[in-house]
Design brief:
about 230 residues; alpha+beta; hypothetical protein yedk fold; 8-stranded mixed sheet; 5-stranded antiparallel sheet; 7 helices; 13 strands; about 20% helix; globular
Length: about 230
């Protein structure tokens, strides 16, 4: 599961670290406490006549299929189970044609110890940029309003080294697979997702989970390990 995460790079860092050709997110600011339905930075490939640009733009975190009449859904769509995403109606079209990356510095999970839920921040021990595998969909509730980009994070079974934190973990896309995952000319299917799942260990083996203080408000202090503040 992934229900809270950070986008802690500034705009120039995102442009550089994720090899972007530009952005359409003029209000972007680093965030350390992003929750479902909030606006996040989403990277997608934009097709032109003779080129493809990798751009970041804003998206609402919780995918809304285009046929839905209301933005608020009676079911959860901020995560999508990767193992059956190709057979889940809400995500089938997005998998085929609207795959994306969500740049991130890490995410939070809560571990219950002696009846107390303690937040943990999971991040990489390397300088390699992290990117969640994501899907997006354009939703337009009113024909007179501009379409809204909405998104979901793919999740899968957590590897042994992270299962003690939570049985599910986001699916990560390694940098050498970004272009293939985003390719607008390639129709997505379960096989491309399964390939990502099969190679998760290269990234998840470099993640570490550290207990942190209450995840309230905003700011870089939220990801400071408790032992570093004692």
């Amino acid at each position: 599961m992934c229900g809270r995460f950070v986008q802690d790079d500034d705009l120039n860092e995102v442009l550089t670290r994720y090899a972007l050709d530009g952005h359409r997110f003029t209000d972007y600011q680093p965030r350390w406490n992003l929750a479902p339905t909030q606006t996040i930075g989403l990277i997608r490939a934009v097709q032109h006549e003779s080129s493809v640009d990798r751009l970041m733009g804003p998206a609402r975190w919780s995918l809304v299929p285009p046929w839905e009449k209301k933005l608020a859904l009676p079911y959860s769509t901020f995560n999508a189970r990767a193992e059956k995403v190709s057979t889940t109606r809400a995500f089938q079209g997005a998998l085929a044609h609207h795959r994306a990356l969500i740049p991130t510095g890490g995410y939070y999970e809560w571990v219950t110890t002696n009846g107390v839920k303690i937040p943990h921040f999971i991040t990489t021990t390397t300088d390699t940029p992290l990117a969640f595998a994501a899907l997006y969909s354009w939703w337009q509730g009113d024909p007179s309003s501009p379409p809204l980009c909405t998104a979901t994070v793919l999740t899968t079974d957590a590897p042994e080294e992270l299962a003690w934190v939570h049985p599910r973990t986001p699916v990560f896309v390694p940098p050498d697979s970004w272009t293939e995952w985003l390719d607008p000319d390639r129709e997505g299917n379960q096989a491309i997702v399964n390939n990502l799942i099969a190679h998760q260990h290269a990234i998840t083996s470099l993640l570490q989970a550290s207990p942190v203080g209450p995840v309230r408000g905003e700011g870089p202090q939220l990801v400071t390990p408790l032992e570093a503040t004692s």
